[in-house]
């Protein structure tokens, strides 16, 4: 690129000089023509130089110094230094698993069979003790039998006492299940009754009148409707009385 520019500038300079010369030649006035008689030949005299013919003095231009300008260099982009990257820890290497030790199988040792111990021999009892032992055994059996009998009797007594104590409640519960008579009376009748061994009604009577014959009859009828009652246990209460009020 630089030699081509210098050659172009030289050609431009030469063209400029030629243009100036042609312009100076065109502007120059016509020279005087000298005629010497008729026999002489006309002679055109030219100056010794191209400068004599010009109106002025044509001086040669000094060559201009061509300065070769280097093409501007683009600034090289300076990359910033890379950020220091923290060194990542190397992944832990897999620890090789230790191979299990091979243990040679040992055949089970046969256990020694224990020898049976000698059973102690029964000692022979001296004669004369057999009768005494037999009598002692019989006495022990009698004591155990009496204890068992007394135990069963005690349990039966407890059961019987519980049945005796709860029987009146069973009778009153049976009477409460019978609907009360709807009698318009402000009095109260008391009925006394007795229960038979089988739970039936042995007898019922008016122990206290309410003052209303209708209420007295309704009270007796209520006791009769409640029978039969549960059979009373041995030794249980069998005579009862109930108070019935009118509405």
From TrEMBL:
Compositional bias per record (Pro residues), positions renumbered to this chain: 72-97
Gene3D superfamilies in the cross-refs: 3.30.1150.10
Domain of life: Bacteria
Compartmental location: Membrane
Keywords: Membrane, Signal, Transmembrane, Transmembrane helix
Gene Ontology BP annotations: transmembrane transport
Record SUPFAM superfamilies: TolA/TonB C-terminal domain
NCBIfam families associated with the record: tonB_Cterm
The protein's name in its UniProt record: TonB family protein
